[in-house]
Amino acid sequence: QVQFVESGGGLVQPGGSLRLSCDASGVVFRIYNWAWYRQAPGKQREWVADISRGYGTRYADSVKGRFTISRDNAKSALYLQMNNLNPEDTAVYYCNTIPVLPGDYWGQGTLVTVSS
Length: 116
Description:
Elements: E1 3-7, E2 10-12, E3 18-25, E4 34-39, E5 46-51, E6 57-59, E7 67-72, E8 77-82, E9 91-97, E10 110-114
Parallel strand pairs: 2-10
Antiparallel strand pairs: 1-3, 3-8, 4-5, 4-9, 5-6, 7-8, 9-10
């Protein structure tokens, strides 16, 4: 059974940091490229960053230089270090493969709220 469990979100002040984690099960983690996505209130889900099987990384322009994606194949885990957060980063964050696995496998996400 494919399952993604995101964690690490919370309320943080502008300029603060958070580290998100994603535990994946039911998939052979190491063979996939992985990504973080986010969905802000009233907006569509958008891609944030991804990391390939070869550890190459890409970032959306809005987070480049502030966010760092990483993976641990031994733990089947994906991470997102988020620094210098701003209110525009407020969203529910999700992990998934990229391209997204067929079958609409999405976790519950983890809510990040950036507010003073």
